[in-house]
Amino acid sequence: MAGTAFGQDAESANLLNGVAIKGYDPVAYFTVGEAVPGDEGITAEHAGIVYQFSSEEHRDLFEADPERYIPAYGGWCAWAASRDSLADIDPTAFVIHEGRLFLNFSSFINGRFRLRLDRNIQDADANWPDLADEAAGR
After folding, report:
1. How much of the chain is in helix, strand and coil states, percent to nearest 5?
2. Which of the 8 DSSP states describes residue 105?
3. Orientation angle between helical segments 117-136 and 107-115, nearest 10 degrees
4. Is 38 helix (H, G, I), strand (E, B) or coil?
């Protein structure tokens, strides 16, 4: 379910200066298990969004299967989405669950999101279509 229904598109994505995840490498969350800043010189575009990577290898992995790596809910805070709201993220506050990347506002909020993880994801999934419309209007 990581596709654009729950992922990112240019209209509803949470971008900083046109770049997703505040410039962090989306692949590193999966391969390294931590948030790693991307390099401005190593980028790829998917669905009209620019992503930065810490290595060419990560860029190549992304280009081969971008839907695997894009964050849920347009890169907005997953816990806020579960509460039917939009909030910015701290790229270091994340969880990967069942192959999906969820970003959160802070480490504290990330902990709250994890407490009822499956229920919070279910609620955020249900809320995201309307929130995507709201995000597109910002």
Report:
1. 40, 25, 35
2. S
3. 120
4. coil
